[in-house]
Amino acid sequence: MTNLAQAWLARSYAHPTQGIFMSGECILVIDDSREIVRHLTERVLPTFGYQTLCAYDGQSGLKMIREKSPDLIMLDYNLPEMTGIDVLREMAQESLNTPVVLMTGYGSELSAIEAFRLGAKDYLIKPF
Q: Are 83 and 45 within 8 A, CB to CB?
């Protein structure tokens, strides 16, 4: 887990009103695991005052990014049809500059480097 992710999770869990983002800001979770999406969007993030959006694939996630302009995106690396890296590429092509934390259960240095090169701000290895 990288520093931004650790700080975000630590501050959010320890001090719900003092997280990196202000209460009420919106976090979009894009992950094909309904269990992870439910855990983050129903249990973790709202507890600390964050509004949440969710998508279960890259295309739906991109549509939500364009329409809702979330403050942060938590993006799974391994999505059906379109990977998290593909989503990052498309975001870069469209100049969609929302901060992204890439999540993966299969972390490697190469995938982290590629994600950062494409604009990801942080990288989390699941489970977290």
A: no
The four Cα atoms 6, 10, 42, 21 give a dihedral, to 10 degrees, of: -80
Which of 36, 81, 29 shows the shortest CA–CA distance to 59?
81
Listed residue (123, 66, 50) closest to 98, CA to CA: 66
Q: Which CATH number fits domain 1-12+47-128: 3.40.50.620, 3.30.450.20, 2.60.40.3760, 3.40.50.2300?
A: 3.40.50.2300
Q: What is the pTM of this model?
A: 0.80
pLDDT at 125 (0 to 100): 84
- How many Å apart are CA 110 and CA 43, to the nearest integer? 32
